[in-house]
Amino acid sequence: MTMQTIDDAVKPENTPRKRGRPSTGKALSDADRQARRREKLKTVGKALLPPAVVSQEVEQALAKFIQFKDMTLGDALDRIVRDRLLRKRSGKRKRKEQTHG
């Protein structure tokens, strides 16, 4: 839009131009992108864990493990949980001898 001055000279308005690439209006919201990411992970059999609070000792040990094994945090957590929680147990457990007294 142009402004007319007193002496009829045409002068452009001082409107600041936005920097960068103009928006298309078709961009996804953050929630939509995150939902799409979760669906994509789900199709390959993966999921996101919520943030957890651990001791500094555990955090340092995990960081050393990740560096030593040259794996990502997700791969390391997957391996540790599988080794400890999802291991196959044989049905035969040694029973404690009960003494009748």
Architecture overview:
With 101 residues, this protein is mainly alpha-helical. The protein contains three helices and two strands. It has helices spanning 30-43, 56-69, 73-84; strands at residues 2-4, 10-12. Strands 1-2 form a two-stranded antiparallel ribbon. The longest helix has 14 residues, at 30-43. It is elongated, with a radius of gyration of 31 Å. The termini are far apart.
**Mean pLDDT score, rounded?**
84
Strand order, main sheet: write it out: 1-2
Shape: elongated
Q: What about the largest sheet?
A: 2 strands, antiparallel
What would you report as the Rg, rounded to the nearest angstrom?
A: 31 Å
Relative strand content: 5-15%
